[in-house]
Protein 1
Amino acid sequence: MIESSLKVGVIQQSATADRNSNNACTVTAIHKVAEAGARLILLQELFAHPYFCQVIENSYFDLAESIPGPTTEELGTLAKQLGIVIVAPIFEKRAVGIYHNTAVIIDANGTLAGKYRKMHIPDDPGYYEKYYFTPGDLGFKPVDTAVGRLGVLICWDQWYPEAARLMALAGADILLYPTAIGWHPDDNPQEQQRQRDAWITIQRAHAIANALPLISCNRTGFEADPSNDKAGIQFWGSSFICGPQGEILAQAPVTEPAILLADLALGRNEEIRKNWPFFRDRRIDAYADLARRYSD
Amino acid sequence: MIESSLKVGVIQQSATADRNSNNACTVTAIHKVAEAGARLILLQELFAHPYFCQVIENSYFDLAESIPGPTTEELGTLAKQLGIVIVAPIFEKRAVGIYHNTAVIIDANGTLAGKYRKMHIPDDPGYYEKYYFTPGDLGFKPVDTAVGRLGVLICWDQWYPEAARLMALAGADILLYPTAIGWHPDDNPQEQQRQRDAWITIQRAHAIANALPLISCNRTGFEADPSNDKAGIQFWGSSFICGPQGEILAQAPVTEPAILLADLALGRNEEIRKNWPFFRDRRIDAYADLARRYSD
């Protein structure tokens, strides 16, 4: 088959409390990535904001916006101007009292190709997402765009092989993971290393299990706890792009903002699946219990 | 909670055409591993034989044996004598015309604690397993032993996150993967490296996704194609033991037989699941399509 190459870009940033400044940085970076030839750009989770879920604070609901809304308008204009597909994670206000952690997928003609609402919602010290985000109700459905069918998942989703598999079974060509994950500054360096390695390893494994390229975008920088109750979060960056055998094609540093670029050889997905035909042999007759909480 | 430690051992070997010699090597190694203090030992897939599935050859069915049978008898005696649990993959003759790729789990008192019949059966050039092995019909059920509940899977199973997850949901304490995987000598070194990395990465990811330690045992050495039609298989060894964050605790070389030992801190499974509570948030309402072949 003819090998088709797609240049993709990732924008890893640190966020400030100034939304306009964050947006301006992102727009500047999108221009750079597009000028470098990328036709698909992934932004980090909740890219316009600090990771406000460090605390439970009612007023943060006012950060949410509608879809379509100001961000989809602005990025739609930019996508059309540059002829690129943009995956932009925003804080969605769906209705009074219903908010989601959502990624909008803006097509190269500027239209809204679709959206993904985060399905798995974490809730851990410093990551109080169940307070803010209603669990997604759109399921695991990839979105068709000018550059292919995109399987967009968000952060906590990345720990669930089920999510990646469902995107692949629905025909995704690429898996994308916008993320906001970091270290508790009090954890020791060995524990921090194990956590970061686990985060890279499990996403590479989703690429391998499904023979799909994968793009992961994490934020970087330290963000203090606004309540000063906790030590804050040191986001570990390390955004990366890997191929359908999990091979790393590009990776960003831990502590610095970065733009990543890589060429995806999309024809390889099919070659890999012919050589290692995992999909042929799934024991769907024996998988029913995956839809159970536990065996008891 | 009280942290309990379990020493486990892996025996990575190269196989010859002489079954008695293979068995004698294995028995010697089991003695060594037990003397080193291990209470659980994992052998490689089809440990008593060369990887005969390189060719389609009717006479190889005669290598199969019943359960219970000579291997379970011999290893049962040894397990009781040494007070260890042995996971031994054999070629099972279940009935005239029904053969399985099976792992027997022999308890520390010498009894047969249970068995696992390989569920996902590959069939690729040089790995003609669908000819020899009827797909397993016991499902993904861990087996209770003196050292815990063992989630034993075999080789091709390791590419399926579904299998590991089902073992975890059924209460497995440890995942175990006896394997026979290697390189086509004609593949270039970069491709070989990607394949081996993928194999390590996806298994580490099963440990991570399920917060379970994992033991993987592959064979090593070159085995020629008996028909001389193909270039044979260079089994890549690299057996390893990792913890519930996917952290490597011990790893064997590529080309040499080896005995691996590691101490598993079983209490860590629960600690990890409390810190990263993936199991709490599975979207079982949205997983039904995992039991479908594809979305169309």
Protein 2
Amino acid sequence: MTLAEPASRTIGERVAEEGALIVSGHDRTGIVAAVSTVLTQAGANIVSLDQHSTNPADGTFFQRTVFRLHDLAVVRTELEKALDRELADGLGLQWRLVESDQPKRMAIFASKTDHCLLDLLWRQQRGELKANVQMVISNHPDLAEKVRWFGVPYFYVPVKDGDKKTAEEEHLRLLAGNVDFIVLARYMQILSGDFIGGVGVPIINIHHSFLPAFIGAGPYQKAKDRGVKLIGATAHYVTEDLDEGPIIEQDVVRVTHADTTRDLMRRGADVERLVLARAVAWHAEDRVLRNGNSTVVFAS
Amino acid sequence: MTLAEPASRTIGERVAEEGALIVSGHDRTGIVAAVSTVLTQAGANIVSLDQHSTNPADGTFFQRTVFRLHDLAVVRTELEKALDRELADGLGLQWRLVESDQPKRMAIFASKTDHCLLDLLWRQQRGELKANVQMVISNHPDLAEKVRWFGVPYFYVPVKDGDKKTAEEEHLRLLAGNVDFIVLARYMQILSGDFIGGVGVPIINIHHSFLPAFIGAGPYQKAKDRGVKLIGATAHYVTEDLDEGPIIEQDVVRVTHADTTRDLMRRGADVERLVLARAVAWHAEDRVLRNGNSTVVFAS
Amino acid sequence: MTLAEPASRTIGERVAEEGALIVSGHDRTGIVAAVSTVLTQAGANIVSLDQHSTNPADGTFFQRTVFRLHDLAVVRTELEKALDRELADGLGLQWRLVESDQPKRMAIFASKTDHCLLDLLWRQQRGELKANVQMVISNHPDLAEKVRWFGVPYFYVPVKDGDKKTAEEEHLRLLAGNVDFIVLARYMQILSGDFIGGVGVPIINIHHSFLPAFIGAGPYQKAKDRGVKLIGATAHYVTEDLDEGPIIEQDVVRVTHADTTRDLMRRGADVERLVLARAVAWHAEDRVLRNGNSTVVFAS
Amino acid sequence: MTLAEPASRTIGERVAEEGALIVSGHDRTGIVAAVSTVLTQAGANIVSLDQHSTNPADGTFFQRTVFRLHDLAVVRTELEKALDRELADGLGLQWRLVESDQPKRMAIFASKTDHCLLDLLWRQQRGELKANVQMVISNHPDLAEKVRWFGVPYFYVPVKDGDKKTAEEEHLRLLAGNVDFIVLARYMQILSGDFIGGVGVPIINIHHSFLPAFIGAGPYQKAKDRGVKLIGATAHYVTEDLDEGPIIEQDVVRVTHADTTRDLMRRGADVERLVLARAVAWHAEDRVLRNGNSTVVFAS
């Protein structure tokens, strides 16, 4: 997790120069050379490079290149033309360019449980995330004061039985154009396919089990019933198939026969917030690339 | 895992004195006092005591007490009478007494994969297990030489398509009266209910996934397909419900998108042999008590 | 970590009945029987029992027994007499009796870093600790607002160069009679021997390394210089020998060559707060018993 | 740990084509582009690329590039000329080219303890290491039979008190020209500076503690005395400063107050063999690059 280090930089000067280039597509000879040549010819210095191929012979290729370039914002248009020419037209690749001084904008959905939500707000305050929390949306009013203490707006949108549609329409009005991704921090409502399709930004969820074990509701009770010796948490992108989306990060903690279901919930809460925090930090730095229903995560 | 320490003992003297008393039953007031009083009145010194109640109000109680007693073999009959009187008759409890210098006798079933099998044989040779491997039974001849090098008999019992019954009858003849428990060290055959019922001793299996995730065949391929970030192994008692028996021990190891299915198999092999070794060591020391479809494990 | 479960109890009724008896002393035959007999004769039902002997032949014995007893507060004096008679006089043991509905009172010392401090305040608010934070004392004013938001008093006591004595005298006036233990949550001042001796309650510190590696200041920089592949944190009781007191809990996290010293600090912060939280929770429940310069920890 | 996968290859055809290029030197703009251009112009397809810079502005740069190239052995001379011209002369870098079908040759030094030694021999037999064990050298005859069972020569070279020189001279005669690296698998003799300098190949040692904690002899006893809650193992390159060489890999396992020093040794043995096996596998695949007294490890 090589997070940005703003404190060691002269603000407004060098930070503006750092960028990340994300490339993916059908693997073929010469991609790494092409990418590094385009960047070098633009005057960029490559800071770090991660790449992965699902199969060098006939697979999918992924690369994340962090570079430094004077006046990136100024020369960006020219660089984009070169990327289109050399990577898109020349090699049939997709590419995406991000400037490192542009934090991503996130919304957090929560219900009544606060541990994942507060941990993210606190990490943002500490400067650990390359992301700003634009708003918190909840189907309960309970956590409003805690959230607003961090200077973040809290929108209470009740979800009435049998009428999720009205709530989701309000969600979409609040979110439209305002956020780059959404985090479900133990939000206890299932999102409709319409919402997921309509919102148009990635959604990260934390599931309180080591998926694919204990899919669905009540995973800690199921874990107790099955007598497992480790419990876990899973951060994943949300798709229409509940608990089936691409996994970003997972971790576990040891438990024993002496732990009650409540103990599992408490121990699990510590894993949930760590796993979700890692997933959000990595996503915010464009370290997570989707590969079908899996992910390529360039982080350690 | 406080294993026996034969090197620090005067053989034939103190080892003969150590015993373990396993008690279980409906929880009620006074059990701990009754057990410790019976032992103390018999002249025993309690070395360690672990107990667990699923619910002090109306649950199931489990206790494992290790004690030292001069001439345990001599006074055993008398002690057993007191246990029957005070614990069975008086409190309605089940009890079981084991002498620590009596290693359990085990059979190992294997197929072609050697890592779990060799690890157990090597740990027995090092004196890490309170158990002796009496025989190895396999449906393939491949591992005979490796096993016999350890001085352990190897019985090749082929399993013909559509005729598992003949093989299992031979298994039962080999095992009858000779072993106290069986370990399936990556044995790639499903045992019939008749065999499980007929053999009359506990059977420990190692499943190459973090159960209940990836039940059934090919768990590493399933793990790769699902894109999990940790893989694991599970040691459990075998019941007629495949992969559903009481879990004894589990552990995991981190993997990444860069790991192929073959990499998962290699990394997983290290977890499998560790998890199985722990489960076998604990079972051999009577540290694992079955509680319905769960286990109480008095080990750390 | 079987924490209290207030939600499942009828407040004012059963909680008042639960107690814990801590016994230690020279090991000898009959201690477990004596303890359980005293409790059973008093009408108590033993809920859980942990014991440890450094050496059954001639070592030190430790036992923590949790029990339920109607009207514990009423019959306490009588029970204490029996414990004095049977355990202290009869067997030469020390004993200590605590009622589980009496949370311990704690003070937290902090400086400018907030992660350990906020984590403890947040866990208290969630009901995870059997302890109340009575006050936070700091040599800096920075964290006052965050602490007071939790309804906890914040006392800013500056420490002037060359005059630690004046500050420590004020600390002692604030603490005297008000707290049962003290937690140093990344407090960046060394306590004098006079203070440690004078305050008369246990002090828990979190050291930001895997002790005994990297004793003293700047452990993360030292870890980076040495090129270690794991970093850790250690919670320990404070003694006059800096970083040498009895260790309560430790944990680690994996790092790589790509992590800068700042990255180590960020990753380490997550380990620090988890390790300190576990140590504080266990201490508050009397699960940590000092044994010379080590500890016996009855927790999992 | 993306180990070789011989089973999925047509032997003698594709394996011969895979190579790894290791580059290091003073970081400057254009290195990645230069390396990938040289390889691409030679007709190579880059399979994977890992790079690290200690500081993009003025640090040291490390890169490991795995590539596939038809007739690598044939065109190798030509490729080397291009690497000299473009990387050494042009950019002042060091480079090293290895063909992936050439396993490294290793010698293992051992004493009486077998767990690390047997684990390496067994992993070689399974095909997990890109290395062949050429010989085992020991100052004791005890393990000869176990080693020779694997078809590996065992040389017993006693070390007489006060005359290590004679033994080390024999070691050098046995090793000269025959091995690419040496592994000390719990070899209980300190190597002289003359030997380390004279042997001219890297030496990997496994230290039975989490360095820099518990340097020197008897680390498990020291760990017990200090009361640590985790014990570990460290694989490192041997330098003249005992236990101070660059660390390759470390790991830990949890222990409790109930574990005796012997228990720590047994639990530690499992960590030692895993940590050493990882370090040896990574070294054999040129994934470990020395950076002063640290290492850059391109593995996961």
